[in-house]
Specification:
This protein is an alpha/beta fold and 259 residues long. The protein folds into 2 domains: 9-186 and 225-243, Rossmann fold, CATH 3.40.50; 188-222, no CATH class. It has helices at 18-29, 41-55, 69-79, 102-130, 151-171, 189-202, 206-215, 225-235, and strands at 9-12, 33-38, 59-63, 84-87, 133-138, 176-183, 247-250. The radius of gyration is 18 Å and the shape is globular. Bound molecules: NADP nicotinamide-adenine-dinucleotide phosphate (NAP). Residues 14-20, 37-40, 43, 65-67, 88-91, 138, 140-141, 183, 185-186, 188-191 line the site of NADP nicotinamide-adenine-dinucleotide phosphate.
């Protein structure tokens, strides 16, 4: 399917690895020029070069922490106007409800709620002026079904979800859509570190923890970054103009419900 977005420009945050990288590759395959961001310059430049080699699109990199005002200012300076924004950042650490203090919540809110909101505030006006735009926020399956040890994530992402629910309906008449893409477990560094935490907690090996995790999913496996990226690219396509304020769950059927 031609996604109809060849020649458009996208900012993909936190995209040197994992799900952000999957989204960047899929958008590049659709002919989209990219601005990629992550904190570590080396992996970021390596991903950028792999994308240039594979798809021949223009890729600009900005090494910066997207969760800080200074980092975002650096990214936005290099970005200018874009047609597509994919919001992403690292997830907060796991823990226990009684351990989290105010500062832990502030960090989680900065990373997973206020950073994407600030980027939308900066970039939506340009999309509205052009009469076309797409925003996809990478959130988490924990928005639908809480993961108790990820309480910081559950809390911050619920805030972003509420913001998107209202704002998406305010900008839709300008041809701009905002939706959230909710990953269940996907094969990334983050998934490995979560499996390692399970292994340490339960006194089993990493392989055993990963096998139990895979068996618990209806598909018998976890998702891939390229499957995730392809879904994101569709949500950024010309065909998704009537998809507004949705929370698209990509979890292999792990969330057990009839509707
Ligand atoms: P990942 O494999 O650890 O990759 C994270 C990427 O984000 C890296 O490129 C990293 O590069 C970049 N990054 C992290 N913090 C950043 C920051 N402050 N500023 C700029 N870039 C930053 O993670 P992932 O699995 O793709 O997860 C992406 C998001 O989806 C996370 O919020 C995670 O909680 C959520 N999620 C993931 C899964 C899953 O199964 N993978 C499931 C549910 C939710 P640098 O470290 O160099 O900055």
């Amino acid at each position: 399917m031609d996604l109809g977005i060849s020649g458009k420009r996208a900012l993909v945050c936190a995209s040197s690895k994992g799900l952000g990288r999957g989204c960047a590759f899929a958008l590049a395959e659709a002919g989209v020029d990219l601005i990629l961001n992550a904190r570590g310059a080396e992996a970021l430049e390596q991903t950028a070069q792999e994308i240039r080699d594979a798809h021949g699109v223009s890729v600009t990199t900005v090494a910066a922490d997207i969760t800080t005002d200074e980092g975002r200012a650096k990214v936005l300076e290099a970005t200018g106007a874009v047609d597509i924004l994919v919001n992403n950042a690292g997830g907060p650490p796991p823990g226990f409800w009684s351990d989290w203090e105010r500062d832990d919540f502030i960090k989680a809110l900065d990373a997973n709620m206020l950073a994407p909101i600030a980027l939308m505030k900066a970039l939506l006006p340009g999309m509205i002026d052009k009469g076309w735009g797409r925003v996809v926020n990478i959130t988490s399956a924990s928005v639908r079904s809480p993961i108790a040890q990820l309480g910081l994530s559950n809390s911050a992402r619920a805030g972003l979800t509420g913001y998107v629910a209202g704002t998406s309906r305010q900008v839709a008449k300008h041809g701009v859509t905002i939706n959230n893409l909710l990953p269940g477990l996907h094969q990334t560094d983050r998934a490995v570190s979560l499996a390692q935490a399970t292994a340490d907690r339960e006194g089993i090996t990493l392989d055993e923890a990963a096998a139990a995790r895979d068996a618990a999913n209806p598909t018998g496996r976890i998702g891939t970054a390229s499957e995730f990226g392809a879904t994101c690219a569709f949500m950024c396509s010309v065909h998704a103009g009537f998809m507004v304020g949705q929370n698209v769950l990509l979890d292999g059927g792990a969330f057990n419900s009839t509707v």
